[in-house]
Automatic annotation (TrEMBL):
GO MF assignments: pyridoxal phosphate binding; transaminase activity
InterPro entries reported in the protein's UniProt record: Aminotransferase_I/II_large, Class-I_PLP-dep_aminotransf, PyrdxlP-dep_Trfase, PyrdxlP-dep_Trfase_major
Cofactor dependence: pyridoxal 5'-phosphate
Pfam families, per the entry: Aminotran_1_2
Source species: Antrodiella citrinella
Domain of life: Eukaryota
Similarity comment: Belongs to the class-I pyridoxal-phosphate-dependent aminotransferase family.
Signal sequence bounds: none
Protein name per the record: Aminotransferase class I/classII large domain-containing protein
Length: 444
């Protein structure tokens, strides 16, 4: 702790303004609050109603994992009795300690954020679980919020369900259009409260595939200080970056150099690089805000899945952090190859019929359908994708579902993560016919 830099951390009381009524009214679980005391040597605990593990029918568990340095080789893993005991039993709300410790070190390796610098990490049942808890902990019904657009449609209902006043912030190939956000903030009516959170996916955004530049990130951080909002940095594609330029630092990393520190909550996911079915994600952010998320967990589902955490840490502890990063590099190269196949087929079949910007991360292609011959007229991809493309035997998503307002757009999104090259070729050949069908229908 003595070698940690002195950061100008925002005080705990600063965050009271960001907590929702639900978060303020939630109380701690009296049992879980005392669970850490069970680790005291010599203490006999009669605290928690844990089932006796001798009654559990699972007695051993063995599996194999890839060697991160040679994917053709496998590492045999057999859980120790102690590991199995932890996996089958209740565990702390913020996560299994060994797993949490490993993730703290990962945040230091990947983002330069050391444990003890005024932030906290908690594990959840996927980052979506943690995002939901964050939104309900920080936003009241009717509150204004900034959401980048387009955005992942699975997150939009989190804000719509509690009837937020959503303000879309435009993005382009360089990330959030910070100059437009500044214009919105500087012209904000003095009688109306400004949004206190901004939601963004800065790497390989679903659906656009955009990765925010360093310049844009610094401008957004400056606006967060000037206009007092917290950044929800949702980053499931951080480890799926395959751009040719060096990867820009995260908001979580960059804020260490800001005049005050504590305006970023970062959401990470293991779904894209280890397993989507294990449902493990983790959030990192200011102590007060993270404790509000933990309190929601104790009220809602007590804890993240113990067995999933044990399975993952049994792999990660053998790989080490270098092995994990080697594995994620291989994953990113895999998706870069998938992107290249898809983009080659786009050029072959859809040149002149669609426009796109090459993604640098993630597993999606976002393209504009040229549905009219008038360049000044914005088309609507909904009918072309939902009707003509489906009738031609290809399924994709119209861009309107990625916009909180649901307004029409000429854009559409396709995922290239699962398709083999012949499927990509056939899908885009069919999409070409669908666009031509839509053009013909528009002329009638």
């Amino acid at each position: 702790m003595g070698d940690l830099p002195v950061l100008n951390l925002l005080p705990d009381e600063f965050y009271e303004q960001f907590l929702s009524e639900l978060a303020v009214n939630r109380t701690d679980d009296a049992i879980r609050e005392l669970m850490p005391l069970e680790n005291r040597p010599g203490l006999i605990s009669m605290l928690v109603g844990k089932p006796n593990s001798s009654s559990f029918p699972i007695t051993s568990l063995s599996f194999t994992a890839q060697d991160p340095n040679d994917a053709s080789k496998e590492i045999a893993i057999r859980l120790t009795p102690e590991e199995l005991e932890v996996g089958l039993q209740y565990s702390p709300t913020q996560g299994v300690p060994e797993f949490v410790d490993w993730l703290y070190k990962l945040q230091e390796v990947s983002h330069g954020r050391k444990r003890g610098e005024g932030w906290k990490l908690s594990v959840g049942n996927g980052s979506q679980d943690l995002l939901y808890k964050a939104v309900t902990s920080f936003v009241n019904p009717g509150d204004p919020v900034f959401l980048e657009a387009p955005m992942y449609p699975g997150v939009i209902p989190l804000f719509q369900t509690i009837r937020c006043n959503i303000y879309e912030v435009e993005t382009d190939a360089k990330g959030i259009c910070s100059h437009k956000l500044r214009a919105m903030l500087e012209s904000w009516p003095a009688s109306n409260p400004k949004p206190k959170i901004l939601y963004t996916v800065p790497y390989g955004c679903n659906p656009t595939g955009m990765t925010a530049t360093l310049e844009r990130r610094l401008e957004i951080l400056a606006l967060a200080r000037e206009h007092n909002f917290v950044i929800l940095e949702d980053d499931p594609y951080f480890y799926v970056y395959y751009g040719t330029a060096p990867r820009p630092p995260s908001y979580f990393s960059l804020e260490r150099e800001q005049p005050d520190v504590g305006r970023v909550i970062r959401f990470d996911s293991l779904s894209k690089v280890l397993s989507s079915g294990l449902r493990l994600g983790f959030a990192s952010g200011p102590l007060t805000l993270m404790r509000a998320i933990d309190r929601h967990s104790t009220n809602a589902n007590l804890q993240p899945n113990s067995m999933a955490q044990i399975l993952v840490i049994s792999v990660l502890s053998r790989w080490g952090h270098d092995g994990f990063l080697t594995h994620t590099q291989r994953v990113s190269e895999f998706y870069r190859a998938k992107r290249d196949v898809f983009e080659t087929a786009l050029r072959r079949h859809l040149t002149g019929l669609v426009e796109w910007v090459t993604p640098e991360s993630g597993m999606f292609m976002w393209f504009k359908l040229l549905l009219t011959e008038d360049d000044d007229e914005e088309g609507d991809s909904a009918a072309a994708i939902r009707t003509h493309a489906f009738e031609r035997g290809v399924l994709a998503l119209p861009g309107t579902v990625f916009l909180p307002s649901g307004r029409k757009t000429a854009y559409a999104r396709a995922s290239f993560s699962l398709l083999e090259p012949p499927q990509v070729d056939e899908a885009l050949r069919r999409l070409k016919d669908a666009i031509l069908d839509a053009r013909s229908a528009a002329k009638k």
